[in-house]
Amino acid sequence: MGGKWSGLIAEACRYDAEGLWDIEIADGKIVNVEPSVPGRAVLAGEMLRAKGALLLPGLVETHIHLDKAFLSNRMPRPAGSVAEAIAMTAELKSSYTPEDITARSELALDRASRFGVTRLRAHVEIDPIVGLMSLESALDIRRCYADKIGIQLVAFRRKASSVVGNRSSSSRSDAIGS
Length: 178
Fold this sequence. Notes:
This protein is an alpha/beta fold. The protein folds into 2 domains: 7-55, Urease, subunit C, domain 1 (Roll), CATH 2.30.40; 59-177, Metal-dependent hydrolases (TIM Barrel), CATH 3.20.20. Helices cover 22% and strands 33% of the residues. A hairpin with a 2-residue loop joins strand 1 (7-14) and strand 2. The longest helix has 17 residues, at 98-114. The radius of gyration is 21 Å and the shape is elongated.
């Protein structure tokens, strides 16, 4: 993924202020925001000229299931109801592999990042079929994407099991849902 970006975003419009603005960034963090000065030099890093484009805060995705991303092309037919979609998805879980979950998750995260998502909450299912596979995959992905997108993991159980899905097995997540 590389290091944190440093440089200047010049001549940007802010959603909360009039005029053009220069935003100085060091190691991925905003360190200075001031009215744009024509011909400003960049002391460190590179310059991106916004040319009046609107600069917005990063977007937040509050509910995503990375382990279920991009499954629609595997469905036998379009679902006629939410219940049917849940049932068809449950049937597909037996074919999950760690590599499959990781590949689909990475595709979803790359796409989300390109569209401006900088933080997301991923719900990770723990059940007797997938066990901890989705959680373990999500933990690895979170480490790999740490410099690109902030990921909060919420582990939740389906069909309670005495072996899989108890509080201790999901303690590596940020939160536990039901």
